[in-house]
UniProtKB/TrEMBL annotation:
Reaction(s) catalysed (UniProt annotation): Random hydrolysis of (1->4)-beta-D-mannosidic linkages in mannans, galactomannans and glucomannans
Signal peptide: 1-19
Family label: Belongs to the glycosyl hydrolase 5 (cellulase A) family.
EC numbers for this chain: 3.2.1.78
Protein name: mannan endo-1,4-beta-mannosidase
Organism: Talaromyces atroroseus
Keywords (A to Z) from UniProt: Carbohydrate metabolism, Glycosidase, Hydrolase, Secreted, Signal
GO molecular function, one term: cellulose binding
Length: 438
């Protein structure tokens, strides 16, 4: 981790006024930390917990006295802001009109509410703009406000012509495809989302092998899926990819949040591996784009409070839900829900939602039921999960997995859990639910 932290410091260091100052969102204090406690001008060293203080936007009261040199002002900041609460240390973007956190809810276009959304991971891989436009139109007219699509498509070999890919990882090198069968396809989704005022969640890597995933990096650079998180060379490639995507859309009104990855897991690892990675990566994203929210994309594994002792609550998959949500550069939490895959009863789902909501409320950040699915009887099984999420303080939205529609090529991808626009199941899971919220 040390080498990775140094890399981030180097990148952040570009804007510092002297070697003594810590850049935007850099670490500036904490047990075992021996670096500078002085933030660059405009940032204040904010106490987060015993192990972590971070430079966040703002000034101390001392700064109001004069335009004195920033080093004098900020050198005293680590003591003056020690009592700053977690939630007030999160950069807020309300005034700029970007989607933001407001207490335990989200604000979109100035309206604070509980929001409903969906997943259509495949949308950036379509090659026909009119299909993309058609899907966004149907999603928007349904009242779905948040849409999650894959922001990654990693390959080890360039696929045949006409197949979309975003990044080639081959023999220790990485090539980002910004062309017509590359990130221009993601551009089309972002443009359509802007036009229809739908807000996107965009993850940068997959835990799973679909569309490459961490194993595509491992194939090109070595290591394993569990060493992916703290291997310097791999993290440099991952961050370069993040920069390529974030810089394309950092001013877009259509981004709801950047997401570190889809369902990051590190089986059998100490949870510090993923927590350290998430702190480093989220701070890096904030340094590139302070206006948009950042979240983890985790499933919610690793929770003590409210645990019933079952596997999903265990820490075996290397994530600590509480620790990850407490990272100051993580704006909100995510949970997923697949009781059938996790060996749980479907009725267990509501308790999974409410226990996490309670932790989110305790930490003071909203969470979203970002994925949930079953392959049959969706109305009867999923509606109670949605109702629980709506009724639980700390839960601020839900997004079913996954959305289906009719494209120029036929029906969109069906993984068994797909709910197609215009069907009776859609009426129940989408239309009725949104009407109930008002
Ligand atoms: C915010 O969320 C809470 C709990 O989820 C809800 O009761 C409340 O009505 C929401 N506030 C607004 C302004 O939407
Ligand atoms: C990197 O992660 C692995 C688990 O994948 C862990 O065993 C190792 O201790 C970590 N290294 C550092 C320096 O944190
Ligand atoms: C999870 O993280 C929280 C907050 O940092 C910590 O208090 C707790 O001990 C951690 N749990 C485990 C099992 O690591």
């Amino acid at each position: 981790m040390k080498a990775i932290a140094l890399l981030v410091f180097t990148l952040l260091g570009c804007s510092t006024v002297s070697a003594q100052t810590v850049g935007a969102y850099g670490q500036c204090g904490g047990s075992g930390y021996s670096g500078s406690t002085v933030c660059i001008s405009g940032y204040v060293c904010t106490y987060e917990n015993a192990f972590y203080s971070q430079c966040v936007p703002g000034t101390t009261t001392l700064a109001t006295t004069t335009t004195s040199s920033s080093s004098t002002v900020s050198s005293s900041s680590s003591t003056t802001t020690k009592s700053t609460s977690i939630s007030s240390s999160i950069p807020k973007s309300t005034s700029t009109g970007f989607p933001s956190v407001n207490g335990l809810n989200f604000t979109i276009d100035g309206v604070t509410n509980y929001y409903v959304g969906t997943n259509a991971y495949w949308l950036p891989f379509l090659t026909d703009d009119s299909d993309v436009d058609h899907v966004l139109g149907d999603i928007a007219s349904s009242g779905l406000k948040i849409l999650r699509v894959w922001g990654f498509n990693d390959v080890n070999i360039i696929p045949s012509s006409g197949t979309v890919w975003f990044q080639l990882l081959e023999d220790g090198t990485a090539t980002i495809n910004t062309g017509a069968d590359g990130l221009e396809r993601l551009d089309a989704v972002v443009s359509a989302a802007e036009a229809y005022d739908v807000k996107l969640i965009i993850p940068f890597v997959n835990n799973w092998n679909d569309y490459g995933g961490m194993n595509a990096y491992v194939t090109a650079f070595g290591g394993s899926q569990t060493t992916w998180y703290n291997t310097t060379e791999i993290q440099e490639v991952y961050q370069a990819y993040i920069e390529a995507v974030v810089s394309r859309y950092s001013s877009s009104s259509a981004i709801f949040a950047w997401e570190l990855g889809n369902e990051p897991r590190c089986n059998g690892c100490d949870t510090s591996v993923i927590t350290d990675w998430a702190a480093t990566t989220s701070a890096y994203i904030k340094s590139l784009d302070p206006n948009h929210m950042v979240t983890t994309g985790i499933e919610g594994f690793g929770l003590t409070a409210g645990s019933d002792g079952s596997y999903p609550y265990s820490f075996n998959e290397g994530t600590n839900f509480t620790a990850l949500l407490s990272i100051p550069t993580i704006d909100f939490g995510t949970i997923h829900l697949y009781p059938d895959s996790w060996g749980e009863a479907e009725t267990w789902g509501s308790s999974w939602v409410s226990t996490h909501g309670a932790t989110c409320a305790a930490i003071g950040k909203p969470c979203i039921l970002e994925e949930f699915g079953v392959s049959y009887n969706q109305c009867a099984i999923e509606a109670p999960w949605q109702a629980t999420s709506l009724d639980t303080a700390g839960m601020a939205g839900d997004m079913f997995w996954q959305y289906g529609d009719t494209l120029s090529t036929g029906e969109s991808s069906d993984d068994g859990n797909t709910i197609y626009y215009g069907t009776s199941t859609y009426s129940c899971v989408v239309t009725d639910h949104i009407e109930a919220i008002g």
